[in-house]
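COURSE: Structural Biology Practicum
ASSIGNMENT: Worksheet 4, Part C
STUDENT ID: 0417
INSTRUCTIONS: Below are two proteins. For each, the amino acid sequence is given first, followed by its structure token string. Answer the questions at the end about the second protein only.

PROTEIN I
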Amino acid sequence: MAVEPVSILGGKSVYCINEGQLKDACALAQEGEAGERIQAELARIGENLSRNEQAALAFMIIENLRNSA
């Protein structure tokens, strides 16, 4: 049985992503030294983790940021 994807921009998602913040994050990931570091990490993660592991990592990063604020 196939699982239907859940939008990360609202609805049934536990965490909703602010579109403005997503746009800013994408811009940062493309600019200067920070962009180079982010792109290098994304490439490394993409090579070493499965899609599900990448999703779990994304949620763990969000959770760590929430708890460290």
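PROTEIN II
(use this one for the questions)
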Amino acid sequence: MRLTTLQIGLIAAGVLLVLGVLVYNRIQERRARRRIEGAFRAGGDALMARTAARGDERVEPTLGAAVPSVRVTHGDGAPPVGERYGIPMDEDGPPEDDAAGEPDEALPPTGPITRSSMTDPQPAQGTQPQPDPEIESVVTLQPVRPVGAGALAAGLHARLGKPLRWFGRRDAGAAWQRLTGDTPGEFSEFAACLLLADRNGAASQPQIEAFQRVIGELAPSLPAAWSAAPPDDEAARAEELDRLCAELDMQIGLTIQRADGSAIPGTRLRGVAEAAGFRLAPSGRFECVQEETGAVLYTLQSSRGEAFTGESLRVASVPGVVLVLDVPRASDPPRAFDQLKLAAKRMAHTLGGDLVDDNQRPLTDAALAAIRSQVVGASDLLARAQIEPGSPRAHKLFSA
């Protein structure tokens, strides 16, 4: 059968579309690599050099005019290529897990808390949480004599607008142990760690000053000597870290809605979602959780941003839903995207809907492949910045 001029034109347009996506991604990757090398050429003990000037707010680009737009939230920046920045990732968990009375000998010894320890090899997954001076403002206290964690009550319960963690160790050669007011035993050194940045922004200088005031008021009661970096230096470091995270942040959303514009009954949606492995979470979203680790792979939420409840799903309908992959918080983001895409296609078919972009146009396999390539690139850039996707460090930095 001979092809008509229209068919030939459509084939050519499809080829050009795919080539355009590939060229766009290659340009973005080369641009990111150049910014990486420029931002981190200074090296040394500094967390990172001053990155190119940019606004304070996170941007929300799409894949460009060549492909349909989907919910892709991220920036264009990049972390280091040549050097390994960051210190060992810790497997963070509730403080109670660390207070179970395990002997210090079971933990790897650590040295002083310095940012030069970024070059140390990463420990195996599952080790106890440790201070992370690359992303936290760390203040150490050395009591005149060993004291219990209960003496830190005022500091343990301080509310500073950013997460605060406390650690203690029995002696200079021992490992740090996460502390609560009930942690048994006495400690010869303490470390207070204030997170410098998360998705709410950088820790401000007033917050850091308040943090150091808490330490300054607590130290005489122990009594203990303490030392801290100048608040303005820590605030500048927080701003740099926040800019880096804004550059690396990415969330992917695939929307399902019915072609005729009709709403999806909540009871129907819940049944299909649960059959696909989702469970309704207290946050008002459905979550698909990895059984082995309990980690959230991706989520399902209303396209209007409204929280789901058991009651609302029973009585109401929704115009559409969005399956969201939070790239920095997912371990192995490319694999998670593949699972997300498969789940989205199956749910769209079962619900009698279509998988569409933000302009209500059907998402083609070529567009999905282009999105996946961006997920792969973002995952690689995070790892090069020593922010392993899905790691405790990533969960701290990319939390709200």
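ANSWER KEY EXCERPT:
Q1: The radius of gyration is 24 Å.
Q2: The domain at 15-75+249-400 is CATH 3.30.1400.10 (Cell Division Protein Zipa; Chain: A,).
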